[in-house]
């Protein structure tokens, strides 16, 4: 086997569109893990909603969460923070004002918690789907603690407009704005991405980039796919992502992760 570490995006890659892991995918991941390969989930999810996926795989270890802003180690003793890229809530006040004015749903995250100011049934269903239990507060501006991610949740046409306006006005300042899904925009520390987090983790494990395979499906996966010796896009990825990848595997609904591991690792 040529690869010592496999980095896996979760939603749209590892899980199918029903947010499920298939038995065959679980068996393949366990097999490659038993042969000595590190399995690292690299996701936009928080640690609390990533851990159940890791447990379903029958594994423990390090998770890269919040799109690279937070790295956490999970074992039988619980979860411990390995690294985080944070910023101050004051840096997003102009974007908070915009979202409140336009009625666009948002949340802000620390390493282990998520905070919201309001929630409707549509947003509640989204959080349930991603196994998230956010904390309701009067104003996130009053949290007084560094945060790792600010996320907008809305329909694609709304976020398309937001993206254009915020880029035109540079409303995110020195922070980094990324489209992490059709329905999500994330604003984070400019050094926070899955690629940088994966690079730091690999260094601690003494694993070189050519020994890493990364599989993803969206623009927030590009840095980790570029860093890895083999970057693979699932078939359901946007064309830009597939063109940037070294290879393309089947879609998340057709067990693309299982197929890629079988082809390149087993």
UniProtKB/TrEMBL annotation:
InterPro entries associated with the record: Cof, HAD-like_sf, HAD-SF_hydro_IIB, HAD_sf
Keyword field: Hydrolase
Keyword set includes Iron: no
UniProt keyword Repressor, yes or no: no
Highest taxon listed in the record's lineage: Bacteria
Annotated coiled-coil segments of the chain: none
Stored PANTHER family: HAD SUPERFAMILY HYDROLASE-LIKE, TYPE 3, PHOSPHOSERINE PHOSPHATASE
Name of this chain's protein: Phosphatase
